[in-house]
Amino acid sequence: MxxxxxxxxxxxxxxxxxxxxxxxxxTVWALLKQNKSVSMKDIVHTAADADMFWFILAIIxxxxxxxxxxxxxxxxxxxxxxxxxxxxxxxxxxxxxxxSAITPSATGGQPxxxxxxxxxxxxxxxxxxxxxxxxxxxxxxxxxxxxxxxxICPCSFAKFSLTSKLLxxxxxxxxxxxxxxxxxxxxxxNFIFDLLSKLISFLGRKKIIRNTKKPQTKLQKAKCDYTACxxxxxxxxxxxxxxxxxxxxxxxxxxxxSALLFISIGGNPGKSVDIFAKQCLITIGYNFVPLPGxxxxxxxxxxxxFSGIIEKxxxxxxxxxxxGMTFYVCVSLSGLITFIGYLIKRRRRKK
Length: 351
Hints:
The protein is an all-alpha fold. About 80% of the residues lie in helices and about 0% in strands.
């Protein structure tokens, strides 16, 4: 049974890895089909004619999205008593970003990140606590940016279509519920380990696992590590603040890309604040959609949001460039770094 489940999981990973590029190509095709007055050639010309100063700032901002998550994970690990190298933090970040993008509801990001942390001899309990705190702060930062967007541009939400409004409201609700859930688990996550212990015992009784003593021992050690780690986090407000700030900067760097690209392609700098506010709400709207990278939904929200404040063709160019830079290029770069990191670690392990 365990072998069948392992094979099933393997084929699921292969399926999503193959399906995600197809979904990406279909999304781009559908967008171009929707606006026949714009072609990929036009998008390339728009990028070539852009103000290079603002365009390069947008590229830097997109790359910082990867870097800041690395800083966030490293800062939490330092609080847990480890001395992680930044290059390892970047690898954890790229694994999270890449596998989140190619799996529905970003379900593959955390396990992939955990895989590399465990390979670096960080215990399972500490890994669980670190990733849980990181995703909690990641969620909080999205909520915080949503609040900021409403403060700086109160009318930004009103200019979305009804469908977009429902997606944004749904996204905000899910983010708030997740925040409460993560806080509850971080304070008392022992029940997760208790459930796993019962599952191991059940598998032992069904003869699926022959010797349950070894996995139970490992699980109890992980539980002790997790408890100690979570207590350390909750008693260290500076650590929590730093984890939040790095995650906030990570999300901010991604959201700023649209505003920077808008200025680079000739947009009125005064309207860049509106673009930023819209992008904050757009991020909330697509962040909970159960599709790899929220492909299609994110594009719809961006086109709908930008079209409400700028000319339609310009909105289309901005959406394609922004989505291309923050998602397609960023995910491809993350995948490449993750693959190289995996090969390096595998080679070192063999030696």
